[in-house]
Amino acid sequence: MSKPANIGIMTSGGDSPGMNAAIRAIVRTALFHDIKPFGIMRGYQGMLEGDIKELLTTDVSNIIHRGGTILKTARSKDFMTEDGMKAAYDQISKHHIEALVLIGGDGTMRGAVEFFKRYKIPAIGMPGTIDNDLNGTDFTIGFDTAVNTAIWAIDKIRDTAEAHDRMFIVEVMGRDAGYIALNSGLACGAEYIFIPEQKEMMQDILTSIQDDRKRKKMTNIIVVAEGDEFGGANEVSALIKQSIPDIETRVTILGHIQRGGSPTCVDRILASRLGHGAVEALAAGRTQEMIGIVNGEIVFTPFASCVKLQKPIPDDLLEMIKVLAK
Ligand code: F6P
Predict the structure, then answer these.
(1) Would you list the domain boundaries of the chain?
(2) What is the pTM of this model?
(3) Residues 19-56: pLDDT tens digits?
(4) Residue whose C-alpha is closest to residue 12's, from 118, 101, 116
């Protein structure tokens, strides 16, 4: 395919810090290549409704440091119907958009696979989710910021936990993925981490907590991913209290605070490199792939592989946590 004259840019699914930095990089790289960039508002929903506008270089001024997304975002159910995809295709054609850059997570890439089975508009995906659960990149845009927000919060919780000799069970985001829990837990010295990817030996953990108490280690931080097997921090707390009734526990659910805020340096640079690379890739005729960074190098992974393969949680980190938190 020759270089597209017009491209559409969209953010979809849960927002993540760094999406604005990505949009800025895409727009400016497109303009550098004499490609006209169009912003598609509210993800696939805005695509099918025709909520699309041309973006000028000034539209992306002063956004590199801002959380959220100037294009807004949504999880569209309508798009997953034949009529929805047809409407999206009609709107793209109406605006003479010849290629797409799609920023989002797992759902965004799945949507892209279905859309391109039917309508052959070239597209490059960019991993934008705080969950870090996409195959084909070491890190997704927003993950570093989210983890740093969780660390900031858990450090404060540890102060009060220590002062009161309490156990705190902190719930972090991650419906299907434990990366935020694993990384924030490791960085905050959490004693136990519950993640969806791993089944916990609850009895062993309860015994270990009782041993801790016998040796006067009264403060424990447990980091729980919201999608863990027990159902979240409240459920884990209830299970512990059932077996050790005299233990004082408190639950903190960090929630959407992890999705907002100014992106870290790591996320701004990742978003800029990937945004720049995505447009260069489209201009060079690549399509149907997600751009990522693995071991510091830009790589491309077919959409179908990003969504099908589960990114493995590093077992060595899980083992290390057990050693370091004793
Ligand atoms: O996918 C990102 C994420 O923040 C998950 O960690 C979380 O489970 C989900 O989105 C929450 O989605 P919503 O904001 O739609 O409730």
Answers:
(1) 6-142+263-306, 143-259
(2) 0.96
(3) 999 999 999 999 999 999 999 999 999 999 999 999 99
(4) 101
131 has catalytic annotation: yes
- For residues 20 and 63, the answer to whether their CB atoms sit within 8 Å is yes
- Residue 71 is given by DSSP the state T
Q: Quick check: CB of 174 below 6 Å from ligand 1?
A: yes
Architecture of domain 6-142+263-306: 3-Layer(aba) Sandwich (3.40)
Query: 11 is written with which tokens?
Result: 């953010």
Kindly report the protein residue whose alpha carbon is nearest to atom 1 of ligand 1: 14
Per-residue pLDDT tens over the stretch 191-248? 999 999 888 888 989 999 999 999 998 889 999 999 999 999 999 999 999 999 999 9
Among 19, 141, 259, 311, which residue has the most ligand 1 atoms within 8 Å of its CB, making it the best to mutate?
259
Beta carbons within 10 angstroms of residue 284's beta carbon:
9
